[in-house]
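Please annotate this fold before class:
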Amino acid sequence: MQRTSFLALLAALALGLVGCGDDDGPTPGTDAGPGVDGGPGTDSEVPSNTIVDVAVAAGNFTQLVAALQAAGLDDDLAGPGPFTVFAPTDAAFEALAAVPEGDALTQVLLYHVVSGRVPASALAEGVNLPTSLNDLTLVVTKTGASVSLNSGVMVTTADIEADNGVIHVIDAVLLPPTIADMAGHAGLTELVGALSAAELVGTVAGEGPFTVFAPTNEAFAALPAVPSGDDLTEVLLYHVVAGAAVPSTAVPASASSAAPARWFEGEGTAPTLTLFFDTSSGVSVNGAADVVIADVRCTNGIVHVIDSVLLPLNIPGIATAAGFSQLLSAVGAAAEVAPGTSVAAALSGDGPLTVFAPTNAAFEAIAATVEGLTAEQVRDVLLYHVVAGGVLSTDLAGIPGGTAASLLGDDLTFDLAPTPPTVEGAGIIATDIIGTNGVVHVVNAVLIPPALR
């Protein structure tokens, strides 16, 4: 990869903030708040005593200066700025097993630079996570007068002034973090321990990209018991969206997690369990967890810290998280399937089951009819929407004769020719919502059993 011009990168990173991904930090080139100067380009003249000049004169940054020269960044750090540089000493570089080369070296160096002049007093921990110039997060911890970065990299001398910025001397080289590294830097010890127990540390340190919803230590402590074995693996993978680094501003209504459906016995890759998101006020997941720190950026994706552990959803859980309130009301009003077994309990069983779930609007369209049904009739209507087995959308074309028996006993007839395809004339408008005990397909009308037509 060719080296990106440092100043061009600064111009592109108009959102290279000092602050977390929730846009609370100062924007380069603007009023950055008390104690923080604006970003690069605010000074019109070339400074005479630059960060590079100061580093050379100090005499204990020869490795840093050599690395900047090797990466072709020394001239850029001699530009107007202002910049904040976390400067490793020669001893810090010598402690490395090997100094990176090429683009890897450039990325390491960029990770030591923050846009704007940020004195140590303006570095804040918690939700105020500074973002480096290669758009990766640095974690700041303050203990009394001491300041450290990531996992214990200490600021040994703060606030060395230069004409184009400020230097904070650090005692180790900062390495751009993977998601696995960041979990440790952020103090998510319970998550790190769980990943280790499930042998998934290597997974979240892999190439990605991933989006990880990372529970706090308090979230794990709130569980009645932390799962183990395959259950723990499923829970942890349920917090991961693979294939994309999704910022908080682009969270969709639903997404596939990295947790495979364990009920799947067909050929090919198993479908993965579904996550639901609500972005009406911040970001919440499955209606059970809120994002409390957003957009923690790592080399292989993005972490959003959440305040509860996500437990994979079964079919009733999907109905709740997806907002199928009318369907849930009908389930609550239905007679038992068998003595001691409610419809809700039947839908919560091991399965797998396939449910054709009517929208709220579909139920509202027949509200007068539903109100006149007995509890037994409501039960029969609901069972008419359920097929035994996990029938994915790709399986519908293979149903013999285009029909499948419902749990009520009556057949459901499918027509795949229209767009959308139909079941008993109702349009199948969303497919393959995957739960722990089956799959949900959304339909735009309530299916009426033959005996009630």
